[in-house]
Amino acid sequence: MDKTLILAQYDRDLREHAVPDGPGARVERVGEVVRQLADAHGWNGVLWSGLDEADADAAIQEQIAAFTALGHDFEWKLHSHDRPADLGSRLTAAGFRAEPAETLMVGEIDRLDLDARLPEGVRLTEVVDEAGVDLFVEAHEKAFGTDGTRMRRRLLDRLAADPDALVAVVALAGTETVSAARMELVPGTPFAGLWGGGTAEPWRGRGLYRALVAHRARIAAARGCRYLQVDASPMSRPILERLGFLALSVTTPYLYETKGS
């Protein structure tokens, strides 16, 4: 797999020519910035930019003004190969706060090691209705210790608007939720994105993360996707590397809190 070519295709398909990630969102290109505008529970932020030293600061201020007018906090999703090279420093100077960095990883499905088994007594169930969303959110909250209210609303909206573009899976031990993950397919591209893979602490180290990746990979392949894309945490990166994923870049979310939020 040619990393340079795949990174260029990723930038083109998923960033520069991005499509909205939900029914309440729209994607706009303003100059050399591509951004998504959504409602209060959707994702608001900058997906791609083609800036240089001369126009970066003005473009940053333009985005702050646009999202502040909406009253939404927003995220500038910066990649380490973006330009100018000091864009992160410029965002910080403008009032953004850098969140923990993750590694952009891509795997070609046909070349991945998908030999994975669930722990004994664990089964997977796919989310198809509101009851399934509730199970998913419960598992997510156990894994990450965060409030899943906003995620619940987004999942319900996605299922209602385009159920074929979302695959959400919950791992159950009996009736206990122990892990959950989702996959978002991007129409018109060879990519599917893996998101939110998390396991309750007592169940970590038993192969659940790997099994959920393999399960989603098989579904993606059956639906004609060629690549899986992941923003990997330091915990998940080694697992993905063993499966055959390659690191292409580093992505850092820069958050801006508006006064209206």
TrEMBL record:
A Pfam family per the record: Acetyltransf_1
Domain N-acetyltransferase per the UniProt entry, residue ranges: 123-261
PROSITE patterns the record matches: GNAT
GO MF annotations in UniProt: acyltransferase activity, transferring groups other than amino-acyl groups
InterPro entries for the chain: Acyl_CoA_acyltransferase, GNAT_dom
Protein name: GNAT family N-acetyltransferase
Organism for this UniProt entry: Streptomyces malaysiense
